[in-house]
Amino acid sequence: MKKHLILPIASLTAVMLAFTACDRSEEEILTEPDPTSAKTSAEATKTFDDVAMMTEEATVEYMDNPDYDTYTFGPCVTVLHDSINTILTFDLGTTGCVGLDGHMRKGKIIVDYNGVPREPGCTLSITLEDFSVDGYSVSGTLTYQAVDYNTSGDLEIAYAVDNGIYTEPDGDVVTFECERTVTWTEGAGSEDLYDDVFTTNGAFTATLNGDAYSGATVNDIVFKSACWADGIYYPVSGTWQLNFPDGINRVIDYGNGDCDKTVVITVGLRDYTYQLP
């Protein structure tokens, strides 16, 4: 089995909460998370994560075997290869293709590649054309460059999302820009898909319906491929500091390493446990 490198972009870095506060000190502020805003932001960033993961995997599988037909996108994907210009196009059609994860995707994923994925110097530039997931429109450009091995012998990847836009059927819009460093810290030398560990750190900027916010890692965000077998692609540990115009401190804590969908969101001096979708 070939190893597939998931490229996390901190799946839920854009978890966003709306809060109501009385005119009192921070210790007395009563806040309530807005489930709609959190859900919208979480699903948006998760969608970009899935695009990166599935596309990298599909690119590797095609390069290994052009007759490969079991892509995560689903069985109805058509692959076009322009070997002269080094461009792969994964066409999911206009009627849609149900992936192995049960989600319906439409449109095209276009990969402009340079080199072999997971080898230093390789670059992938992923562009979405008329792309949607379950009726949610997604556009933007995702890029990564496998930079080199660090002093510990771990592969480091520079990852970015540019002009990311996620539009819900009801009209809510999330924009997303990020720059990350992803480090493949465990499992790179084996053939086991489920023994990998990835850490990521960096920063992002985003908006939800025009309201701007940003974030940066406080502690490295950690992903374990062992969780994939249970359908859990969220981080297992690490924290993000979120910055909002109201100046109230917000932190997302992904836990102590367990494969689950639970996060603790701190607003001011209050903690809220939240189950991610």
Report the radius of gyration as a whole number of Å.
19 Å
Question: Mean pLDDT, rounded to whole units?
Answer: 81
- CA(first)-CA(last) distance: 30 Å
Q: What composes the largest sheet?
A: 14 strands, antiparallel
What order do the helices and strands follow?
A: HEEEEEEEEEEEEEE
Bulk shape:
globular
Give the count of helical stretches.
1
> What is the strand content?
over 45%
Total count of domains? 1
Quantity of strands, as a count = 14
Which parts are unreliable, with pLDDT below 50 for 5 consecutive residues or more? 6-31
Structural class: mainly beta
Give the proportion of residues in helices.
10-25%
Task: Give your account of this protein's structure.
It is globular and about 55 Å long. The protein is mainly beta and 277 residues long. Strands 1, 2, 3, 4, 5, 6, 7, 8, 9, 10, 11, 12, 13 and 14 form a 14-stranded antiparallel sheet that branches. A hairpin with a 2-residue loop joins strand 5 (123-133) and strand 6 (136-149). It has one domain (31-275). The protein contains one helix and 14 strands. It has one helix at residues 35-64; strands at 78-82, 87-91, 97-98, 104-114, 123-133, 136-149, 155-167, 173-186, 197-208, 211-224, 237-243, 250-256, 262-267, 270-275. It starts with 34 loop residues before the first helix and ends with a strand. Helices cover 11% and strands 46% of the residues.
